Amino acid sequence: MIEHKKIKSIGDILHRVQEHGFVGRVREQEMFERYLKEMEHRNERILNLFGPPGIGKTELLGQFKRQAEKWGFRQVLVDFREIGPEFNAFARALSTQLDLPDDNHEDQDKAVLKGLHESAADGPLLLILDHYEEAGALDKWVRTALIPGLHIRTCILIGSRYPLLRSWITSPAWISMIVSMPLRELSRSETDEYMKRHGNSRTAEMDQAWLHTKGHPLMLSLWSGKMDRILDSAEEAGAPRVEPLLDCLLDYGLEESHRKELTDALEVAAFLRHFDRERLEAILRRELPFAIFDRVIQLSFVRKYSRGWQINRLIREALRSRVKTRTPERYHQLRESTVSFYTARLQQKLEQTQDVTEEVEELMQYIGNPVLRAHYRHVEGIHYMLEQLDHSNLEEAKAYIRQRQEYARPCRVICADPETGNEYRYRLTREESLLRLVPAQPIELAERYPDTVKLFRDHDGKLFGLAAVVPVNREHLPLLASSPVSRAYIESLAPEELAEIRQLSGPDRHKGHFLLALDMENLEDDHQRSILVHFTLKYMLSGERLLVSPPPHPYYQDAYRNLGFEIVPGAEHPHYGGEMSALTLMADSRGKGLFRLFEKWMTTPLPLSDSPATLSAAGDLSLFTAREKEVAEKLLRGLTNQQISQALYISEAAVKKHLTAMMRKAEVQNRTQLVSAILGELPASK
């Protein structure tokens, strides 16, 4: 509720509401605050905010405006979306704000410059140029005449969809004066705070907002705003609730592209995670003019990566959704062409024993595995660096582990498959979130075996994760035989297999790798979870065996089961504690193994986290625990105990234990009666 004391106009109310509703951008605000304090001692005079449509540039400029006002800056704002690229309109906008006489003399540009100069001479001045991508021909005048003539006490803020053109950065002098500020989506915590400030404080509401907007400011604004009637209408029409929001975002973002040829090329690019001209032509099956391709890659929501270009994830999904709704035949044709293109590339590279990670990642969004699609959905270009843990970074690694143990908290992993809309939710306790870090004792491990522990760093150099990957060979056999995570696997091996391992020596001679630890700072972060998958895939696709023994939690079970890992018989262990034993799993990509893995990815296993939902037509299940409901779902499908153990990643002994408990609760004597009780055909005990 806005306090109306000291408010004299509706504009004051708007100002207060905007200030109250502004969330996030802490780093940018701190940088701007520092700049305002130190302006007299710095060369930088131009701050360039840029980012794709709806990322919040205008809102942040408004927040900067409020910050500068507190520091006594006079402010002048020119919005090129309103005035266009006409000098007369630009001059009028400045003259009005500077109270200059409305004289139409020939030296109007000099009058404007004089007014700005005099204004800054009386006190610091903030000149804000918003939607600068619309400046057109005025860009040269602003760069060559306006800015050089401004008073030294002037700060220039430029908001645009693109970074400033090359003409701004061809000179070292210009480079020294410009501070670039690219904007990204809000974080999960910032998104939650945004929802709370707009009256949506329930966990379910905040989860839905994050799931469907991923912190995109325009989408958040639409989601949290007064859109009830639009959303209700969508539901009545049978459309997903998020569809109207994506339409709004798409219409806003595609203002730059009106030509049909450009839209056609964009629709094809939306089916590719990364694209270039050759790939677009292969999908289109015709030549794409250079002029059209250049126009595509210059759009503000298209970014350059090492593998090519990429459309902003929200725009990409909205485009695909629109094609699917409006032209379903074209949708299926483009989808099939994309899958065929990358499948052919995958097969060719496999035959040539080349790395196929890129092809698998592209196909990930189309294969019949909704869990993998959900976890891998939000990767706009995986950026991380791996380095070996050694004496140079030992203290930093120790600090990371201490921090993880001290600040670990319960976490909720929420993701959705863009193809089906299915949502997957997992909860991990504080202790469960540390189970893939602490047991491996990575510091002691690195001291004994320096080649085994890797650190993950982001593009800013911050350490955010750790992995321990141990070769299965003679040198590392004592480690694998003693580690509680891998000991059960070594004990399960036949004597001849152990003898074979003892014959393998050296860094390139081994019988696969064992992943002893794989920890990320924040499992709620989509990017970090995608890095987990990417890192695992690198080993899986290398033509060898990869072994893991993750905690017996549905999140890990779903992840590895859907990646195609299989249970290693007789290698269970109770090391993680709790009622359930942990299994040892293996993915084997040797020889034809990679083809078999790919066949698994084309199937659609049921996630453990969603299993109870499939029992909605059954009888009273309130008697059963969550795990027993999962067993019940498999039982209704007619699976044997062995098949249930494979599907749920638990032992056959555990399946029998669950079935016995379920029969006792349902007061039945055998498996057939239990099925009938679950279906509601027999009265179950209350």
From TrEMBL:
Keywords: DNA-binding, Transcription, Transcription regulation. Pfam families: AAA_16, GerE. It comes from the Bacteria. Residues 617-682 form the HTH luxR-type domain. GO terms for molecular function: DNA binding. The keyword Transcription regulation applies. This is AAA family ATPase. GO terms for biological process: regulation of DNA-templated transcription. It comes from Paenibacillus faecis. InterPro entries: AAA_16 (IPR041664), P-loop_NTPase (IPR027417), Sig_transdc_resp-reg_C-effctor (IPR016032), Tscrpt_reg_LuxR_C (IPR000792), WH-like_DNA-bd_sf (IPR036388).
